[in-house]
Amino acid sequence: MKKILVLNGPNLNLLGTREPAQYGHETLADVERMCAEAGAALGVEVECRQSNHEGVLLDWIHEAGREVAAGRMLGVVMNPGAYTHTSIALHDAIKGASVPLIELHISNVHARESFRHHSYISPAARGIIVGLGVKGYPLAIEALVRVSS
């Protein structure tokens, strides 16, 4: 069974308590459960990871690239959090590792502060899902499965 890696960046461990009007009341554990259920329904294994540290996320993207190249992984669904707007390193890792990636945001970043309108990740992503709340996670998993087949 092939795998999809779901990566969550900084502050996403605070889901459910951080700005619930913006991000909802679901916790990261709720999101991970939704992702596992979506994967099971689609016949793929889903592994979820979260880090507040950019270098850890980079290492996981590199690892995913090796797994994709070996035929064991379809790719990555990633909510890079605030690194979306600051991290050229994540952009370079996605491209350098040749990993298919769906960029995901819970809120509609384009309807928020202007500094959130630019993404360094988008040009390296296979696709983008924004503004659908945590329901975007299963959709991103499904999208990655569909574009990989």
From TrEMBL:
Single Gene Ontology MF annotation: 3-dehydroquinate dehydratase activity
Q: Which PROSITE patterns match?
A: DEHYDROQUINASE_II
Q: Which reaction does it catalyse?
A: 3-dehydroquinate = 3-dehydroshikimate + H2O
InterPro entries in the cross-refs:
DHquinase_II, DHquinase_II_CS, DHquinase_II_sf
The biological process GO terms on file are: amino acid biosynthetic process; aromatic amino acid family biosynthetic process; chorismate biosynthetic process; quinate catabolic process
The superkingdom listed in its UniProt entry is Bacteria
Protein function: Catalyzes a trans-dehydration via an enolate intermediate.
Family the UniProt entry places it in = Belongs to the type-II 3-dehydroquinase family.
Can you name this protein? 3-dehydroquinate dehydratase
- Please give the organism: Pseudacidovorax intermedius
Gene name per UniProt? aroQ
